[in-house]
């Protein structure tokens, strides 16, 4: 039998049977949460392993890999329908947690490949060819070429400028992302300060807000 004392010094008696049950609840709850934590860590590892396989593959290859994974899930005891849903959940988690680079080198959330039309394949191949063609040029060289093309001003030259701009954007995607993140952080800080001043309503706050409005136009 367990005896506890409440905040007002009144003995609280818990029977031996209830003490055993409550103790077991605490023990088993801990074991269950530990199992969940271990399961989550294991899933995270498996998601990362799958991402390494599926990133950058074509639709046809992706679907073949999907077929193999679903077969494994069925062999582990899932129904075919449950195995398919399990795979979709895994792809959703990967989309939420992993990024890939798009055609311009910008990091975006992973998306499973869509069925490719002949036109999409042609455009993707053309983009890869452009990247390979311009690979030998340093950034400064590309800017020089761009300047010369702009001086010419004909349609062919202007179309080439568009391709060069796309390549420069692809190469500088990380810098652009960092600048966007810096601007967002600064904007959030300014917005928070404006809310503080507006809430205070003091003459000094009104003066600061007025000055800020004049500066920002």
Overview of this protein structure:
This protein folds into 3 domains: 1-6 and 15-114; 117-171, no CATH class; 178-217, no CATH class. The chain is 76% helix and 6% strand. The protein contains 8 helices and 4 strands; from the N terminus they run E-E-H-H-H-E-E-H-H-H-H-H. The chain has helices at 16-54, 59-75, 80-97, 118-134, 139-152, 155-171, 173-200, 203-216, and strands at 2-5, 11-14, 99-101, 107-109. A hairpin with a 5-residue loop joins strand 1 (2-5) and strand 2. The longest helix is centred in the first third of the chain and has 39 residues, at 16-54.
Key phrases:
8 helices, two-stranded antiparallel ribbon, mainly alpha, 217 residues
Topology:
Blueprint: E1 2-5, E2 11-14, H1 16-54, H2 59-75, H3 80-97, E3 99-101, E4 107-109, H4 118-134, H5 139-152, H6 155-171, H7 173-200, H8 203-216
Antiparallel strand pairs: 1-2, 3-4
Helix pairs in contact: 2-3, 5-6, 7-8
């Amino acid at each position: 039998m367990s005896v506890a004392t409440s905040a007002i010094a009144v003995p609280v008696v818990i029977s031996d049977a209830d003490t055993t049950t409550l103790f077991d609840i605490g023990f088993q709850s801990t074991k269950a949460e530990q199992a969940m934590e271990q399961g989550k860590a294991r899933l995270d590892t498996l998601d990362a392993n799958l991402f390494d396989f599926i990133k950058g593959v074509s639709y046809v290859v992706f679907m073949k890999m999907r077929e193999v994974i679903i077969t494994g899930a069925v062999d582990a005891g899932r129904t075919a329908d449950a195995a398919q849903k399990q795979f979709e959940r895994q792809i959703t988690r990967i989309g939420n947690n992993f990024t890939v680079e798009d055609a311009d080198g910008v990091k975006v959330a992973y998306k499973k490949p869509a069925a490719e039309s002949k036109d999409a394949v042609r455009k993707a191949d053309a983009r890869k060819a452009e990247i390979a063609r311009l690979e030998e040029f340093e950034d400064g060289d590309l800017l020089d070429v761009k300047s010369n093309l702009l001086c010419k001003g004909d349609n062919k030259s202007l179309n080439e400028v568009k391709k060069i701009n796309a390549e420069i954007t692809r190469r500088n995607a990380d810098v652009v992302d960092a600048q966007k993140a810096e601007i967002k952080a600064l904007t959030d800080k300014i917005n928070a300060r404006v809310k503080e001043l507006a809430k205070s309503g003091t003459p000094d706050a009104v003066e600061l807000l007025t000055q800020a409005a004049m500066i920002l136009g």
